TrEMBL record:
The lineage of its organism: Archaea, Thermoproteota, Thermoprotei, Desulfurococcales, Pyrodictiaceae. The active site is at residues 56, 58, 61. Residues 2-204 form the Orotidine 5'-phosphate decarboxylase domain. Pathway: Pyrimidine metabolism; UMP biosynthesis via de novo pathway; UMP from orotate: step 2/2. Its EC number is 4.1.1.23. GO terms for cellular component: cytosol. It comes from Hyperthermus butylicus (strain DSM 5456 / JCM 9403 / PLM1-5). CDD domains: OMP_decarboxylase_like. This is Orotidine 5'-phosphate decarboxylase. The keyword Lyase applies. It holds the Pfam family OMPdecase. One of its GO terms (biological process) is 'de novo' pyrimidine nucleobase biosynthetic process. One of its GO terms (molecular function) is orotidine-5'-phosphate decarboxylase activity. Keywords: Decarboxylase, Lyase, Pyrimidine biosynthesis. Substrate binds at residues 27, 113, 188-189.
Length: 218
């Protein structure tokens, strides 16, 4: 399964129950977690235990603050997202140690999907990739809207899971990032704003499959 549903706003019990075993996992965003709290994330997880659960806190702080931020969600999720740009010493090293002690994974944002991000790139992305390599991140986030960056990240970090947001509401098509080497595409509003999220998720998966068949052909 190559689809992760991003849940950012609305109560999601029904959505999780419908999409459980259809999508690979769920990414819980800051707006949802602020509104409904950590206990809510623990409850959601129980509705679909075997999915890959990710808390997208977009951590970017000193180590001790990042560690304090993840504590309420330990056990509710399998992975946390932090920004690579904060660097290793005194920041991601402490977070990575804490997560490892709890058997929880670290996913680093190395490149973002919005239009303004592209002017920041080149050296920054290379630096972020190096941070991900040094800290042995389990996963990274790279933009479906810029498949060339997904391909760059994949070539530099062959063993790392690549998660790509930007499909649907931000303009990328299902399969764009997978064809460039991503493992998962993250889809939010296209699914969560639909009156029939299950149907849309199935359609995205079918489109991904079709596109992958074409892009891997010699
Ligand atoms: P949507 O498909 O509705 O655009 O949602 C994309 C999700 O991925 C949101 O949760 C957003 O915060 C996240 N995201 C992103 O869009 N771009 C990035 O570079 C990194 C993200 O985590």
């Amino acid at each position: 399964m190559t689809l992760v549903a991003a849940i950012d706003r609305d109560p999601a019990e029904e959505l999780v129950s419908k999409l459980c075993r259809v999508v690979a996992g769920f990414k819980l965003g800051i707006p949802l977690l602020l509104r409904y709290g950590a206990a809510y994330a623990h409850r959601l997880r129980k509705l679909c235990r075997d999915a890959l659960w990710i808390a997208d806190l977009k951590l970017a702080d000193i180590g001790s603050t990042m560690v304090a931020s993840v504590e309420p969600l330990l056990g509710a999720v399998d992975a946390f997202i932090a920004h690579a740009v904060v660097g290793v010493e005194g920041a991601l090293d402490q977070l990575a140690n804490t997560l490892e002690e709890h058997g929880t994974k670290l996913v680093l944002v190395v490149a973002m999907s919005h239009p303004g991000a592209s002017s920041l790139y080149n050296k920054l992305v290379e630096d972020n990739i190096e941070v991900a390599r040094r800290i042995r991140a389990w996963g990274v986030v790279a933009p479906a809207t810029m498949p060339e960056l997904v391909a760059l990240v994949r070539s530099r970090l062959p063993e790392v899971k690549v998660f790509s947001p930007g499909v649907g509401a931000q303009g990328a098509k299902p399969g764009d990032a997978l064809c460039a080497g991503a493992d998962y595409e993250i889809v939010g509003r296209l699914i969560t704003s639909s009156p029939d999220p299950l149907e849309v998720a199935k359609k995205v998966l079918a489109e991904q499959k079709k596109r992958l068949e074409r892009c891997w052909k010699p």
